[in-house]
What we know:
By secondary structure, the chain is of the alpha/beta class. The chain has helices spanning 13-24, 41-48, 60-70, 88-99, 171-191, 199-213, 216-246, 251-258, 262-274; strands at 3-9, 29-34, 51-54, 76-81, 84-86, 106-116, 122-135, 163-168. A hairpin with a 5-residue loop joins strand 6 and strand 7. The protein starts with a strand and ends with a helix.
Amino acid sequence: MRLGGYVLHRNNRDTLGAALQSLLAVCDDVVALDSLSDDGSVELARSLGARSVSHAWEGYGAARAAAVEALGACDYVLFLDSDEHLEPASIARLRAWRESGPREPLYRLPRRDWAELEGGRRFRYRTEWRARLVRRDMAVWRPEMIVHEALPRMRAPRLHAPIEHRFASSVERRSQKEERYALLWALRAHAEHRRLKPALLQRPAHLVRDGVLHGALLRGGLDALRLAWAVAGYHSAKYRYLRALRDGQHPQLVQLYQQGRYGEVFERVRAAQLA
């Protein structure tokens, strides 16, 4: 059984090495899809033995599709983000999985989100199960999937090979990212005519989910509460933006999305946030 792996990156030299070394430890072929970085990430990827492929950024769907296309022949695909890595125990578990003759369309792995905040405070924010091992014929992404992994919803077995994720190094930067991604999510949801949900209810519900049910407050105290409030803001913001789009706001973004000009969508959203 052949296993291909990929990671998407831009200027992520500080974390990219660990992600690539993790994939190289278990995969037969590894692609580092570079979105025009200028910090030496390409040189790092090549020095480690990964194949660097250049791809102008047009969103996650187009990038994931390009990465899979660039891979050599393989039966399954494993993908990590550039700020994720695998510890030795997870690498061993994945090697054992390869030897077991897997047949399922996809497998879910636990991703452990770590907060590494100012002042040296580090704690596990939450653990979520993600579809990260995908049979090659099911590893299909489309360009309009600009934000989320967006693989088909289906029952999938769990494989206990935790992915370690550097989730947040700053509450403020995490909050900005959540706000930006909420608008991107809403653009896709608007095009797909998704159902609106009450925006005001989303933030407290997700604050309780992450802070209490997932145990972040117990592990991180007030720092975790601040982070959970910022992260929960994404879930209210995305429906607030979806309502705004339904009311005719952001017409230029809607037009760019409809025209498939996803790279421009990202640039305009980023520029608006910096303004």
